[in-house]
Design goal:
mainly alpha; 2 domains; 2 helices; 5% strand; flat; hydrolase; Cytosol aminopeptidase domain-containing protein
């Protein structure tokens, strides 16, 4: 996600330290990443993986919508490769 300074003003709040809603119909994932960045000041390496759109789905094997686990294997393999 691009973490451009232009998006910081979207997180300004008159009553809180930071707001987790831009109020604009665009850049929702970028605003979420900027919100998380606020809490990573002492962490140089972090990531925001926005997989909410595929996190739940219908399955013939479940009685209701269930977690898909999409992206988990990718993250595990990435971390394993970096650890080597």
């Amino acid at each position: 996600m691009p973490l451009y300074e232009d998006f910081e003003s979207d997180l300004h709040s008159d009553i809180a330290d930071i707001r987790n809603l831009s109020g604009k119909p665009i850049a929702g994932a970028i605003n979420a990443a900027k919100f998380l960045e606020f809490f990573t000041e002492s962490h140089e390496n972090w990531m925001h993986l926005d997989i909410a759109g595929v996190s739940f789905g219908d399955s013939p094997y479940a009685k209701m919508k269930s977690a898909s686990g999409y992206g988990i294997q990718l993250m595990v393999e990435f971390v394993k490769a970096k650890a080597e």
